[in-house]
Amino acid sequence: MPDHLIISRAAVGSRMASPGIRAYQLAGALGRALPGNEITLAIPGSDDGIPAPAPNVRMQQWASNGDALKLAREHPTTISRNFQPHLLRLLGKRRFALDAYTPFYIEWMELSKNGMRGRRSWMSSNRWYLNLQLSMADYMFCADERQRDMWIGMLMALALVPPDMYERDPSLRSFIDVVPYGVSPAPLVHTRPVLRGVVDGIGDNDRILIWNGSITDWNDPFTLLEAMEHFATRRPEIKLVFLGVEHPDKVFDHTRGATQRAIELARERGLEGRNVFVLHGWRPYEEIDNYLAESDMAVCLGYEDIESRFAFRTRYVDVLRARLPLLCTRGDVLAERAAAEPFGIAVAERDLNGVIAGIERILDDAAFAETCRERAAAVGAELSWDEVVKPLVRFCESGESAAMPAARRVKQAWGRAGAYFALRELALVSPV
User: Fold this and answer.
1) Are 262 and 337 in contact (CB under 8 A)?
2) Using the 8-state DSSP alphabet, how is residue 52 labeled?
3) Distance of alpha carbon 324 from alpha carbon 338, whole angstroms
4) Which pTM does this prediction carry?
5) What is the pLDDT of residues 73-112, one digit of tens each?
């Protein structure tokens, strides 16, 4: 019987976003840490020929809930960002490790806030779905201590941390620990030009700001575009590149929302193709290094709200690996580290003057930029996948569950699954 299963709900292949990359890299790190085990990485659809992340990792396609159930039956441990309710019949028979590196419920509120039909029922169904995930978990891991506090609060509210569980381990580390989004162990390699002298309007001596990821509805590209309008005539050598806008998991519709509004604003202000460049599509995973290597700094702006409070900005991790100084908005844990280390500058939300000054300081203050690069490299080493995966490795090696006994969770879990399915059907017909 194979040893451990990772189920990815997101695309894994030549084009993938952070959820797929995390599943792929976790499989590789587990494989390297457990060389005597076999790791199965279950992916939706073809792997597009992407190599397995470690010699003992087997790539397996899955397409249905039945496929997922069959695979989980064949493995003592299943690791996933969320478990299909069909896996509930294995509760107590197999171990489930929940990858809770994103604050799901907050993201769902953001994704549904722009006029979604049946939003109230849809969010109610998702709440029960999340409660089901927490009920099924034999182990949980998240991206940082702030998230861990949030999840522990939810678990206690659901009566999933009874006194006897607390007495066994008052720290709860054996049940919920921190596995941040990691940094690839492979060195950054520039294999060919992709921006300078390649993209019409970007020259060899230009200074490139890279927005290395999608434009989500909780991002603020608009203040940045105002800053680029300021630079358009004053400093035309400063160029902004949006690396990709068509998310491979179809999470964000690039024809609407913040993405569409940002592109329209760049066109209205005469910035597109002048000092703002939108690379449509999604860059192949093996090409990302080339874009990072040609950039002078990275930038990503958002808002100081509850989303940022519990976010772990995965796009910042590639910035660390590439040793790029970062300009970002305050609020999330990595933004705080960027300002404190420092490996960049964190500004207040919608602070146009702060954004302009931050860009100029990073580009013009060579000593500060070099300090940022040095600190980025140090933090990147701390967040290497082989280092951050250690708590998950300990869980896999233990062969045990530190959660409340499955026999006491199963009734709650079935009730939560039933509420989820009922509300999901209501969401499909509800007008509000």
Assistant:
1) no
2) P
3) 11
4) 0.93
5) 999 999 999 999 999 999 999 999 999 999 988 988 888 8
